[in-house]
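Sample 1 of the test manifest.
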Amino acid sequence: DTAVSQTPKYLVTQMGNDKSIKCEQNLGHDTMYWYKQDSKKFLKIMFSYNNKELIINETVPNRFSPKSPDKAHLNLHINSLELGDSAVYFCASSHIWRGGIHGYTFGSGTRLTVV
Amino acid sequence: AQSVTQLDSQVPVFEEAPVELRCNYSSSVSVYLFWYVQYPNQGLQLLLKYLSGSTLVESINGFEAEFNKSQTSFHLRKPSVHISDTAEYFCAVSDRVQGAQKLVFGQGTRLTINP
């Protein structure tokens, strides 16, 4: 069984469109994240939710809106897509234990291509 | 805020040769450190982690890393590499920002194994 699953795996869309990426984890973790990996493989955090509450928002354009209906799901909606949004988006989850993170479990990624 | 520097963007080695991938982090009172591996077109997988205790940590596939507090380093080593080790390797450190935990990643090191 997949621990962190993302859909879709590939997404090709035109500039100006609105799209969503879904993420679900079955690990019982209380914290979920969205990371963006650019063409140079650099990973940068975008958002983090803890028990449905937004706790990290890293200066991401407000065209990006995360939504967490429950602690097992974290979706990412993107409005008015731009060419620069093309990247691989990774969902991850973790459990906070004794005040610290002991590692993430990542999804397999969603490769977004804006044309 | 924590930061991580991976000193080599690419490391080419021959099969069965030893390899070291270097990682330095910004100083802190206490840190959790991680190495993740990303195989082509896949998500990130946890390779090993240092939380506390023994400064030498090992993975199941022959990699090891040593936490060196005085040099603020967490270099990854393998005494004999295989073609299947070809991948992107990321060093990461835990960070606490505004009461929230996250992982901060280095720029990645591409390990290429030549026959």
